[in-house]
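Technical note accompanying the year-one report. For the benefit of new consortium partners, we illustrate the data format agreed upon in the data management plan: each record pairs a sequence with a structure-token string. No post-processing was applied to the example shown here.
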Amino acid sequence: MNKQEFLNELKSKLTGLPQADLEERLSFYEEMIDDRIEDGKTEEEAVSEIGSVDEVVKTIMSEIPLSRLVKEKTSNRKKMSVPVIILLVLGFPVWFPILVSIICVFFSLYLTVWILILSMWIVDLSFAISSIAGIVALVFAIVQGSFPMIMLSIGTMLVMGGLAVLLFFACKAATVGFAKATGRMMVGIKTMFVGQK
């Protein structure tokens, strides 16, 4: 893919962006390609180093605030015809509660996942505290000279410490994974506002 094809495809996928942002992004990538060509690379090599158009679009969409996209989309709306306005007003008692319900369900599911992840972190913390409590119990068992209590304390300390370490990695993976999924969801929402071709 040469420079012009890359820029044309990028422009077509970002048609819903505010005009100033669109021109700024296009000139940025055009300059980036030109700089690489000046360094001795061919157009195709320069374009391939930047990445695919879809990757560039995802990067751009993650940088632009959602509020700016919504403002641009609503300010460029064409005037609605009278029959459409009448249908919207008459259908309001039907479509508005459905829309609110859908938004509430998605928000509840999203919040539920974060609460589950938080619960996992709390369980992990309780395992770590139990392991520390096992160390304290071990000290008391050694002072008392109770061999069964020493063995029980060592077992508790090792099992709870091991579970805390294992659950830590699971919690970390879940947190990072869902945070990335949240970022992808935001890019998807922004992409809906841009209205790619």
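Partners are asked to follow this layout when depositing records. The two ends are 19 Å apart (CA to CA).
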